[in-house]
Design goal:
The complex is a heterodimer of chains A (324) and B (88).
Chain A: H1 3-9, E1 15-19, H2 26-39, E2 44-48, H3 55-58, E3 69-72, E4 75-79, H4 82-101, H5 108-118, H6 122-138, E5 143-147, H7 151-188, H8 198-217, E6 223-229, H9 233-248, E7 253-261, H10 273-293, E8 297-302, H11 310-322
Parallel strand pairs in A: 1-5, 1-6, 2-4, 2-5, 6-7, 7-8
Antiparallel strand pairs in A: 3-4
Helix pairs in contact in A: 2-11, 4-5, 4-6, 6-8, 7-8, 7-9
Chain B: H1 3-21, H2 23-45, H3 56-66, H4 70-77, H5 83-87
Classes of the chains: A alpha/beta (324), B mainly alpha (88).
Chain lengths: 324, 88
């Protein structure tokens, strides 16, 4: 089934993702798909969850950390600035401490902790993870297109949702037990109702955020996930492994897109052996792709004469992928 | 006996009964509650004393609520004792 048909036949799949190893064309396909949907009158948001995002480069416009930026009619793009997000978040926490206890400044050991926690390697991903919830919950777009991180990171991102979920469940349970003891004491002392547990409320809020984010990634009804591959041995091996892992996390894989196929028409011309060899190599792996993935291949995209940046090239690519 | 004296008599009776019957229980409950509080801080803010905690992003959200308990918690956990003694 073609890419176009999959998307047209499943209008309920509002979250479209392209995943794959680095540099295979995830951003390019995200942009082209967003462009195509936008020209068909759908309101589209394409955003990047990669700390090293490249949507700015492909749209040739600086959108980093600027919130949703309108690229053209119906098309918005966003790149999350994780640092900015973390800084704002830290300040929010500091302000809350100052407000709650009437301090003039945050106690030193607390301040140290806030700074140390923000230097954790997982912090950036977590911040982006959290920011995505805002994007997906607030906007009223018809389609959300995720420009995903390379495979290894994407898996980490997925497992993060699970780890968070378990962690939250554990501490929520402990907190609830604590609450029971508190109530028992106030019953024994014949005091009035205990105050509401703010932490428990906070935990429920966090759980809501995590569920909102992870639900989308694994929602078979609303999510379409495409793997991007190129006809080369290493890529195929890695993708196969990744696909198995993704399946374990219940990510619904809608199909594969084969990129960078050297146009076969070239064979009719007098081409150097270098190019001929590459075509032969690709033929071998294309055959392999056809045998193993068969109907799951949604599209073959040729190697273009130049890189895809700017709306003109994006338009051209979207015509190749979806027809004009 | 005036109204007021009657009231304070019953009040005293109540307190004596509370002391005999449930004071110990509530003290025990409060102690358990305090231990749990410290366990809670450990699994959310453990980073502070070198126990790695998986998602630091969301534990920061909880930080403001435990600020007053942090110093007693640290003192208690870092006392020269078996860690399990400190928790239970």
């Amino acid at each position: 089934m073609s890419l176009k048909k999959i998307i047209e036949e499943h209008p309920e799949r509002r979250y479209i993702m392209f995943g794959g190893k680095g540099g295979l064309g995830k951003t390019t396909f995200s942009a082209a798909t967003a462009y195509w949907l936008a020209t068909r009158g759908k309101k589209v948001m394409v955003f990047s969850v990669d700390p090293q995002a490249s949507l700015s480069d492909i749209f040739q416009q600086d959108i980093f950390g600027k919130g949703p930026v309108k690229i053209m009619d119906n098309l918005w793009a966003q790149e999350i600035d994780a640092d900015q997000h973390i800084k704002a978040y830290q300040n929010e926490i500091r302000q809350k401490i100052l407000d709650m206890y009437g301090f003039d400044q945050v106690p030193e050991e607390i301040e140290q902790y806030i700074q140390a926690a923000s230097a954790e390697p997982a912090m950036e991903e977590s911040a982006i993870f959290d920011a995505v919830v805002d994007i997906v919950v607030q906007g009223d777009y018809d389609y959300y297109i995720y420009d995903l991180v390379p495979l290894g990171h994407a898996l980490y991102y997925l497992s993060m949702a699970k780890v968070y979920d378990e962690w939250i469940n554990k501490i929520t349970k402990l907190r609830e037990e604590m609450r029971e003891y508190e109530e028992m004491v106030s019953r024994l002392k014949r005091e009035k109702e205990t105050e509401e547990d703010q932490i428990l409320k906070e935990l429920q809020y966090i759980r809501g955020r995590i569920n909102a984010s992870s639900k989308i990634l694994t929602d078979k009804e609303k999510t379409a996930f495409f793997f991007v591959v190129i006809p080369e041995e290493m890529i195929l091996i890695d993708t196969k492994k990744a696909a198995e892992l993704f399946a374990k996390f219940d990510v619904p894989i809608s199909g594969y897109v084969v990129n960078r196929v050297v146009p076969r028409d070239l064979l009719k011309e007098n081409i150097p052996p270098y190019l001929k060899n590459r075509i032969e190599m690709q033929d071998k792996y294309l055959k392999q792709i056809d045998e193993t993935l068969g109907k799951q291949v949604a599209s073959h995209v040729p190697e273009l004469e130049r890189d895809v940046t700017g709306l003109d090239m994006i338009k051209k690519l979207s015509e190749i992928m979806y027809g004009s | 006996m005036s109204e007021e004296e009657k009231k304070s008599f019953w009040q005293n009776m109540k307190e004596v009964l509370y002391g005999m019957a449930s004071h110990d229980m509530s003290r025990y409950a409060l102690r358990t509650r305090a231990s749990m509080e410290h366990l809670f801080i450990l699994i959310t803010m453990g980073d502070m004393i070198g126990v790695p905690i998986l998602p630091p992003y969301y534990s920061l959200r909880l930080l403001p609520y435990v600020v007053p308990q942090i110093s007693t918690w640290k003192r208690r956990l870092l006392r020269e004792k078996d860690l399990s003694d400190a928790m239970f």
